[in-house]
């Protein structure tokens, strides 16, 4: 394992808002921590959402939905699903995801997409998608003023959405990694950590109390659920 692994990226992730900055500062390759096994689960129906704005329902499904599709803007592509999410707009943002591991994965991809290519200021997207918590103020304080150049740097690092890895899942909280391809490490895949929680009938991102999200890791090709569609 190389000592200088992902130096620019790790330094950049001082706050969850710096996920954008992390893309811009991605530099050196490294061998990362070993990822866990590939998550798998048989689809089982969970109780639907009672009341609330979204009312998408829930399940224990880990794998991507059959209706997975891709949206694109400014050369950046990300996965979406009309059944699992985003299924509605809320306050001008794509929202309303299924209460499931797959729904959490699609939420995380949408979080990235809005920060990377959204028409508004990144701080506004982060404000919408981040749960009220001790770390939120730090996330907003360190948010970049603009996402200009983010997609170009993402592309120059060979990064595309590859999938997600669910480390822990309950109906109210998910610890996951957003997995992307990259040309900057030995495995060809990197995982960005994210914790999401269920609040107000939808998933929201929850940073640590200091606003950070944790360090990215190298991921091997058999250690995550792949997007298909």
List descriptors:
alpha+beta; 6-stranded antiparallel beta sheet; two-stranded antiparallel ribbon; 12 strands
Radius of gyration: 16 Å
* Strand elements, count: 12
Low-confidence stretches: 1-18, 20-49
Order of helices and strands: HHEEEEEEHHHHEEEEEE
Mean pLDDT: 79
Count of helix runs: 6
Multimeric state of these chains? single chain
Structure report:
The structure is a single chain. The protein has helices at 7-12, 19-25, 101-117, 122-129, 136-141, 150-156, and strands at residues 45-46, 58-59, 69-73, 76-80, 88-90, 93-95, 161-169, 173-181, 189-199, 202-205, 217-218, 225-226. It is α+β, with helices and mostly antiparallel strands and 229 residues long. Strands 7, 8, 9, 10, 11 and 12 form a six-stranded antiparallel β-sheet that branches. Helix 2 packs across helix 6.
Write the layout of secondary structure elements.
Elements: H1 7-12, H2 19-25, E1 45-46, E2 58-59, E3 69-73, E4 76-80, E5 88-90, E6 93-95, H3 101-117, H4 122-129, H5 136-141, H6 150-156, E7 161-169, E8 173-181, E9 189-199, E10 202-205, E11 217-218, E12 225-226
Antiparallel strand pairs: 1-2, 3-4, 5-6, 7-8, 7-12, 8-9, 9-10, 9-11
Helix pairs in contact: 2-6, 3-4
Give a short synopsis of this structure.
The protein is α+β, with helices and mostly antiparallel strands. The chain has helices at 7-12, 19-25, 101-117, 122-129, 136-141, 150-156, and strands at 45-46, 58-59, 69-73, 76-80, 88-90, 93-95, 161-169, 173-181, 189-199, 202-205, 217-218, 225-226.
């Amino acid at each position: 394992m190389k000592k200088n692994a992902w130096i620019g990226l790790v330094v950049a992730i001082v706050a969850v808002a710096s996920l954008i900055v992390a893309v811009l500062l991605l530099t050196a390759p490294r061998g990362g921590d070993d990822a866990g096994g590939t998550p798998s689960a048989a689809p089982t129906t969970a109780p639907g959402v009672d009341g609330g704005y979204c009312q998408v329902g829930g399940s224990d499904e880990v794998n991507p939905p059959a209706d997975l599709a891709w949206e694109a803007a400014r050369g950046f592509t990300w996965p979406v699903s009309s059944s699992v999410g985003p299924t509605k707009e809320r306050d001008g943002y794509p929202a309303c995801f299924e209460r499931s591991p797959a729904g959490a994965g699609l939420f995380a991809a949408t979080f990235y997409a809005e920060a990377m290519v959204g028409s508004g200021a990144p701080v506004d997207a982060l404000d919408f998608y981040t749960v009220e918590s001790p770390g939120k103020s730090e996330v907003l304080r360190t948010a970049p003023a603009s996402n200009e150049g983010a997609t170009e740097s993402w592309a120059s690092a060979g990064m595309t959405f590859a999938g997600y890895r669910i480390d822990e899942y309950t109906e109210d909280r998910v610890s996951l990694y957003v997995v992307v391809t990259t040309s900057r490490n030995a495995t060809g895949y990197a995982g960005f950590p994210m914790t999401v929680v269920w609040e107000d009938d939808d998933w929201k991102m929850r940073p640590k109390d200091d606003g950070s999200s944790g360090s990215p890791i190298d991921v091997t090709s058999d250690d995550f659920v792949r997007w298909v569609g």
